[in-house]
UniProtKB/TrEMBL annotation:
The lineage of its organism: Bacteria, Bacillati, Actinomycetota, Actinomycetes, Streptosporangiales. It catalyses: (2R)-3-phosphoglycerate + NAD(+) = 3-phosphooxypyruvate + NADH + H(+); (R)-2-hydroxyglutarate + NAD(+) = 2-oxoglutarate + NADH + H(+). GO terms for biological process: L-serine biosynthetic process. The chain holds residues 1 to 321 of 539 of the full protein. It comes from the Bacteria. The keyword Chloroplast does not apply. This is D-3-phosphoglycerate dehydrogenase. Keywords: Amino-acid biosynthesis, NAD, Oxidoreductase, Serine biosynthesis.
């Protein structure tokens, strides 16, 4: 005979759906107070039914949290983005549905800034090209002659959190830094040793252009055909912000026609991106959206959003992370 245990009421823990990889540290912060479920947020056929009983949803950038997804989540109270950009979350639709949206705005900015510097240097010195050639048994020194950063002009588009960290990290290379950011006070930029100028001036003067803008209606295609006809042919362009801000077709033509000397691209208009005309070009170095992919950044993003989810589900004030 089995011993008889009195049955209490079933304990219904709030359900947190983790739709993309979340750090162990983030899962640990959630602890035992929640029922944590996992799904592949990039796969709509998995995501939509999985939303039915969910109180909180945690995503990175591959999950589109749009009006359709929200309509499948009648219990949803909070969407947490384990990172910076909120362009994959329809914040207006969420707000209309009474769903709070939180992110981890500082979690990966150091990683993104460091990756930007890596792509700038890789592009200046043909690191990836020399590496591939040598591994293929080719010792090509003159073909991969690069350029110095010293005394060059770096143009930063968007002098926000990441743009500022990039400026700080590049300053010791002896570069002159200019930036286009109409929302920033010139005095604030001057404190960092950066001159605020117009977009036209950045295009005209910069030897390196690095993009650190949010993706929005205003910024999609900001660097397109017209702009890529206005740059120096020696310019190298790096985008660790969002795909589509630099128009990929226009960039391809400019690189191919020698109107742009090189590019370092971490983000693509459509991701995952495993097939792009840009991949055919020798003067392009690419990474698969790795800007935030460090252990440190993922731990910070995971723990910050897990804390915000706990506070939001407890009905408490959620401070900016
Ligand atoms: P931020 O909000 O701190 O800075 C953005 C800056 O752009 C602000 O200073 C703002 O004034 C400026 N800006 C906004 N609209 C503008 C416009 N139309 N023209 C000119 N300037 C404009 O953002 P952040 O944390 O620095 O992030 C920058 C970008 O990097 C975002 O797109 C974010 O999603 C992306 N990001 C990518 C990765 C990655 O893994 N590749 C990692 C982190 C962040
Ligand atoms: C971000 O906006 O935080 C980044 O793109 C990082 C990511 O989603 O991996």
């Amino acid at each position: 005979m089995h011993p008889h245990f009195p049955k209490g009421p079933p304990v219904n823990k709030p359900v947190v759906l983790v739709a993309e990889e979340l750090s162990e540290a983030g899962l640990a912060v959630l602890g035992a107070d929640f029922e944590v479920r996992h799904t592949d947020g990039a796969d709509r056929a998995q995501l939509l039914p999985a939303l039915a009983e969910v109180d909180a949803l945690i995503v990175r950038s591959a999950t589109q949290v749009d009006a359709e997804a929200l309509s499948h989540a009648p219990r949803l109270r909070v969407v947490a983005r384990a990172g910076v950009g909120l362009d994959n979350v329809d914040v207006a639709a969420a707000t209309k549905a009474g769903v709070m949206v939180v992110n981890a705005p500082t979690s990966n900015i150091t990683s993104a800034a460091e990756h930007t510097v890596a792509l700038i240097l890789a592009s200046a010195r043909n690191v990836a090209q020399g590496h591939s050639a040598l591994k293929a048994g080719e010792w090509k020194r003159s073909k991969y002659t690069g350029v110095e950063l010293d005394a060059k002009v770096v143009g930063i588009l968007g002098l926000g959190r990441i743009g500022q960290l990039v400026a700080q990290r590049l300053a010791p290379f002896g570069v002159d830094i200019i930036a286009y950011d109409p929302y920033l006070q010139p005095a604030r930029a001057a404190q960092m040793g950066v001159r605020l100028v117009t977009l036209e001036e950045v295009l005209k003067q910069a030897d390196f252009i690095t993009v650190h803008l949010p993706k929005s209606k205003e910024t999609i295609g900001l660097i397109g055909e017209r702009e890529l006809h206005a740059v120096k042919p020696s310019v190298r362009i790096v985008n660790v912000a969002r795909g589509g801000i630099v128009d990929e077709n226009a960039l391809y033509s400019a690189l191919k026609e020698g109107r742009v000397a090189g590019a370092g691209i971490d983000v693509f208009a459509k991701e995952p991106c495993t097939d792009s005309p840009l991949f055919e070009l020798d003067n392009v170095v690419v990474t698969p959206h790795l800007g935030a992919s460090t252990h440190e950044a993922q731990e910070k993003a995971g723990t910050q959003v897990a804390r915000s989810v706990k506070l939001a589900l407890a009905g408490e004030f959620v401070p900016d992370a």
